[in-house]
Amino acid sequence: MSKTHSMLILPGDGIGPEAMIEVKKIVTWLEENKDIKFDLSEDHVGGRAYDEYGTSLADHTLEKAKEVDAVMFGAVGGPKWDGVAYDKRPEAGLLKLRKELNLFANLRPAMCFEPLVDASSLKPELVSGLDIMIVRELTGGVYFGEPRGITELSNGQRRGVNTQVYETYEIHRVAHVAFDLARKRNGHVTSVEKANVMESGLLWREEVNVIAKDYPDVKLEHMYADNCAMQLVRTPKQFDVILTDNLFGDMLSDIAAMLTGSLGMLPSASLGEAGKGALYEPVHGSAPDIAGKGIANPIATILSFAMALRYTFDEPLAADLIENAVNEVLANNIRTADINQPGMTLVSTGEMGSHIVAAMEKLSN
Ligand code: IPM
Ligand code: MG
What we know:
- The protein is of the alpha/beta class.
- The chain folds into 2 domains: about 200 residues, Isopropylmalate Dehydrogenase; about 150 residues, 3-Layer(aba) Sandwich (Isopropylmalate Dehydrogenase), CATH 3.40.718.
- The chain is globular, with a radius of gyration of 20 Å.
- The chain starts with a strand and ends with a helix.
- The strands form 3 sheets. Strands 2-1-3-12-11-4-5-10-8-9 form a 10-stranded mixed sheet, with helices on both faces.
């Protein structure tokens, strides 16, 4: 008998819940047609959790997240919670989940689906065949460094402080993830920091060099973050695996996402030590401006679920099936608003999900 996969669904805010409904359609289809069994639970996170529980991540939700095989996360945040205390803001719930589950490696693949080459803001020849894996460090750096805060100075000025800090082990463990992935891909790691300005960047560079010695078969290149941003929009196909810190990874992955046509296409996996803890979420945010209208693109969330099938549930065939189905639907010119172009069929969030399920059905026959 196959194993039952336990998964906690945290739809969150904005377009998170709409996109998650489409994931649930796929879960149901897999259960009914592929005999893959899930033990699903669901809870609130972010602003919705603040409204329900008075905090953006309740203790019982965190406990559940630690018990399950994987967390499927939607998105958090929105103007409704702008006035909420800083430590209770929706984003704090996500950051706490990452930290408490020790999800230090964030994998953000930027792949250009062939039918979308014209949707990119770059020329088709620059993005056709694009396949980059960004490995973003996720539990350290300036996101979590101490000291931090805003203080009042005696001269009436205020002072805001955040600290960029990395220790050897944090760099080593995420570097291993990047080099291991590069081995299974095109054997090229680009490590990104600002060693020309920041000591933490210099340490990053030196410690990545230490790990590189274990991988003589992988080519390592170092690049400053500003140059990397420029290179990503100049010749993105030069990259295979980009290894970088929490803040630079946040920014560079938004750039990489847009190369693929839309931020609505990019999934991610956040992983801890082998087999311990995993969270899957789209790279895009809660998009409050379009929430509730049924026009959001559910593909990034659906592809995040495909990553869960691949990296946590050990169901690579189901993951392939979802990815192929997405490609098929796009090839049939079905588009949500964010990737729509003249002559294409514009569909709603729910229709996009149903088309993907139908394509899964068709591809399995
Ligand atoms: C991301 C998001 C988050 C981050 C926010 C929502 C806290 O932008 O996952 O890229 O900055 O890490
Ligand atoms: Mg971001």
